Amino acid sequence: MDGQRGRRVLDTILASKRAEIAALLVAPPPRVIRAPAGGVFKALRRPEGGALRLLAEVKLRSPSAGALSSVLRPAERARRYAEAGATMISVLIDGPFFGGSYDDLAACRDALDVAFGAARPKLLCKEFILDPIQLAMAAAHGADAALLIARITSAEDLARLADAARDLGIEPFVEVTTEEELAAAEHARARVLGVNARDLDTLVMDPARAERVLARVDPTAARVHLSGLASPSDVARIAQGPADAALVGEALMRQDDPGPLLAAMVTRAAAG
């Protein structure tokens, strides 16, 4: 595999984001009509002796995997994730590269509010966020948390974005891949930290590196393992480590009905 393929893809995505941001900045400001619920940190923290929390992802396609299952609309998929025991649902809202939209996020929020009310899973807006206007859009469309990727911002910008998220009432969910990025996340006072097992430059999975970085995360934070989990046994392995939670994406998105696989993963998350 081309060792810089991921970097080129990421650069292309970021160029697209800058164009989107320019358009958002001249549009009328978004109006928040679905207030964030709060409580993201508490929901993702694993109690002593408790089960690993699971995050399930809505992602129609990706540059690395191509097209994934489109049998279920995002809102129906989110509802099935919730029924199977997901603590949080991550919604990819990028359109050009991942097939998502802010409307998908809003539809998931509305469906979960109707079906589960205050007991619904938390919602994570997963986007390549470079500007506070994107956080305002996330809040307006029902997010409880927003992904901030340390790799794509300076430490100073990461801290500013985290503050902007908190000002909007949404939890900054900071993704890191290295110990240097972890230091930037800590500088940003992030309480929810995700460690990505996939290297964004090469797109190669490196579980050993992810486990090493995860072990360095402050144990008072909510520690989330990101990427690379495909089976209940994978979830059981992560449950034996320091993580409070783990995200499952493509394995679920390859299922036309993701409920049975996620339910099996939830069972193993509890059993370890």
From TrEMBL:
- EC class, as a word, reads lyase
Q: Report the residue ranges that make up the Indole-3-glycerol phosphate synthase domain in this protein.
A: 10-258
Hey, which pathway is this one from? Amino-acid biosynthesis; L-tryptophan biosynthesis; L-tryptophan from chorismate: step 4/5
Q: Which reaction does it catalyse?
A: 1-(2-carboxyphenylamino)-1-deoxy-D-ribulose 5-phosphate + H(+) = (1S,2R)-1-C-(indol-3-yl)glycerol 3-phosphate + CO2 + H2O
- Entries under CDD domains matching the protein: IGPS
Q: Which UniProt keywords apply?
A: Amino-acid biosynthesis, Aromatic amino acid biosynthesis, Decarboxylase, Lyase, Tryptophan biosynthesis
Gene Ontology annotations of biological process type: L-tryptophan biosynthetic process
Q: Which GO terms describe its molecular function?
A: indole-3-glycerol-phosphate synthase activity; phosphoribosylanthranilate isomerase activity
Q: Which domain of life is it from?
A: Bacteria
Name of this chain's protein: indole-3-glycerol-phosphate synthase
